[in-house]
Amino acid sequence: MPASVSSAATANVPALSADLPIGQIAVQWPGATAIFRRLKLDFCCGGQQSLRSAAAGKGLDAEAVLAEIAPLQRSNALPEATAPGALIDHILTRYHEVHRAQLPELIRMARRVEAVHRAHPQVPAGLADLLEAMEAELLSHMQKEEQILFPMLRAGGAPFVGQPISMMRSEHVEHGAALQKLAALTNDATPPADACNTWRALYAGIAQLGEDLVAHIHLENNVLFPQFEAPAAPGCACH
């Protein structure tokens, strides 16, 4: 199992409310930054004002904005059904779609933080490039699963199914190594004390990416794939 990027961002999270400061929402609900940016709501320098106040200033309905943010509260609970089709559906919606949404926004914020805070001693130089490399690897990996492996598993497997499963397991190890690099570069997704809201939101998003990727890999390696792999032959008991 690869190491995750740890963060305290998920601890003691208050209920989502329009009365929370917009900067706090940006940090505690990774992905909200993309919504705020699209709506031109300033969560960085103007992060102390409540979402209700920020939305009113732009002529927006705060409850409608909340409705966009609410789906970002995702659970890592395993699906009750462990049948391959149900597991694959869960993996596609909970992890593949989420990774595709997470990474472009994280890359954008990383470029911003690296540019604005380039003189800061703790700036994560090279973070955007690392995230871009991870995105390329993940997109390729997920495409192989979606186009080759998952249809094969939905059909009940095949005599040679162990080969693509072995390839996916090998790539999972590479994803784990990338997460370790990400943790080292970001001090385990821990922003400096004087970090701005964008920096804090970036690291919260990176922590969420790490948690999601570890849960994703666990579900495939330990729940889905073993259903199609031949059990290991018992060792010889003759001595």
From TrEMBL:
Keywords of this entry: Cytoplasm, Iron, Metal-binding
Superkingdom: Bacteria
Keyword set includes Iron: yes
Gene Ontology molecular function, alphabetical: metal ion binding
GO cellular component: cytoplasm
Cellular localization per UniProt: Cytoplasm
Residues of the Hemerythrin-like domain: 88-227
Name of protein: Regulator of cell morphogenesis and NO signaling
Species of provenance: Extensimonas vulgaris
